[in-house]
Recover the amino acids of this structure.
């Protein structure tokens, strides 16, 4: 059976794509790494890596092997976190999320309470499908995303096939998120008719992505002007530069984004009916959260309660 150390070596090599470079990162000689790989490959009965002049790539069996190896390493780290006494084990904690400032805020408050010399922290604001893939592939312990009446069936199916489960946090109505200097920023509510002369902004979901993956509610409505962005900073710049807007949950973190943006209630009409956004977090089936994962969810709930969102 492969050792924990050998599994760690193989995972690192698969991430870097080179035995030579992995040797430098791991401070292990190249012959030792090669010997470890060969020993594991002999034990499992198949090649894990395909070697070429440009480095190494995972074989089909190797990719599946690494997926399970990540699960073993993750469970080992949880075991060491709860029961281990070694000060040399640097623990890991990762979150993958759609573009929610409250998720970042909770992460910031969490990291402040931990020694960053003892933890490798990671937070990934990314596309919807990547949030799910990061959880399924053990890159992150917790994912943050939303569901609605429109996408719930599709997202739940994807979660089931990925061995994940959704946990409810809040329900919220749709809001129009725009720059405080926008001509419509002081309105008490907004309709699509009010917004028709302004570009609708949305986060890009990748080539061939299903509209079920859209982060913005009412994504199937017909918009006269649309612009896609792939990060929060660009989205905010477009709001100011082009008076663009997006549809969101209405949860604004002023501590991180400042006071230059507002959320105005969206008013539905007979054609475009509003829908409730159910925001929640996802975890892997049959696993328990680490203590740091539990604290992260606690931080999120505390923040949402502070801003009068019922849980």
């Amino acid at each position: 059976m492969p050792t924990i150390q050998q599994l760690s070596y193989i995972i690192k090599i698969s991430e870097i794509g080179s035995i030579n470079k992995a040797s430098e990162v791991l401070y292990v000689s190249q012959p030792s790494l090669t010997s470890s790989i060969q020993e594991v490959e002999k034990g499992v009965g198949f090649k894990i890596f395909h070697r070429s002049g440009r480095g190494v790539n995972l074989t089909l069996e190797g990719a599946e092997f690494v997926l399970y190896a990540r699960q073993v390493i993750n469970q080992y780290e949880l075991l060491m976190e709860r029961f281990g006494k070694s000060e040399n084990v640097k623990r890991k904690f990762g979150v993958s999320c759609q573009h929610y400032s409250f998720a970042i805020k909770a992460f910031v408050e969490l990291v402040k309470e931990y020694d960053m010399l003892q933890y490798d922290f990671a937070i990934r604001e990314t596309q919807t499908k990547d949030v799910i893939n990061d959880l399924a592939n053990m890159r992150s312990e917790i994912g943050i995303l939303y569901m609605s009446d429109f996408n719930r069936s599709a997202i739940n199916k994807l979660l089931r096939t990925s061995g994940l489960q959704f946990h409810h946090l809040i329900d919220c109505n749709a809001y129009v998120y725009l720059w405080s200097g926008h001509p419509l920023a002081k309105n008490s509510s907004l309709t699509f008719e009010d917004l028709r002369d302004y570009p609708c902004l949305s986060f890009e979901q990748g080539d061939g992505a299903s509209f079920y993956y859209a982060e913005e509610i009412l994504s199937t409505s017909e918009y006269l002007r649309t612009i896609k962005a792939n990060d929060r900073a660009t989205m905010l710049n477009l709001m100011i530069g082009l008076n663009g807007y997006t549809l969101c949950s209405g949860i604004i973190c002023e501590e991180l984004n400042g006071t230059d943006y507002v959320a105005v209630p969206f008013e539905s009409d007979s054609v475009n009916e509003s829908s409730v956004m159910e925001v929640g977090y996802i975890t892997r089936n049959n696993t328990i959260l680490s203590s740091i994962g539990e604290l992260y969810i606690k931080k999120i709930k505390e923040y949402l309660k502070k801003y009068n969102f019922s849980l």
